[in-house]
Amino acid sequence: MKSAIAEVAQVYGIENWGAGYFGINSRGNLSVRLSERDTRSADVKKIVDDLIARRVKLPVIIRFPQLFASQVRKMNQSFRAAMKEFDYKGAHKAVFPMKVNQRRQVIEAYLEEGSKHSYGLEAGSKPELYAALALDQAPDSLLVCNGFKDNGFIDLAFVGTQLGKNVVIVIEKLNELPRVIERAQATGVRPMLGMRVRLYTRGSGRWEKSGGEQSKFGLTTTELLQAIKSLRDAGLLDSLRVLHFHIGSQITQIKRVKSGVKEAARVYAKIRKMGIDVDHLNVGGGAGVDYDGSKTSFESSANYTLQEFANDVIYTIKSVCEEENVPEPNVITESGRVLVAYHAILITNIIDEIETVRGMRNVTMTGNEAQVIKELYDLYKSMTAKNFLEYYHDALEHKEELFTLFDLGFIGLEDRAKGEILFWEVCDKANNFAKLSQLKSEEFDDLRKLLSAKYLCNFSVFRSVPDHWAIDQLFPIIPIHRLNEVPTDTATLCDITCDSDGVIDRFVDLHDVKEVLEVHDLKNNEPYYLAMMLIGAYQEVMGNFHNLFGTTNEAHVIISGDGEYHISRVIEGSNVGEMVSFAKYEKDFLQEGFRTLLNRQIKKGKLTEEEAGYLSEEYDNHFDDYTYLDTNGRQ
Question: What is the model's pTM?
Answer without folding.
Answer: 0.89
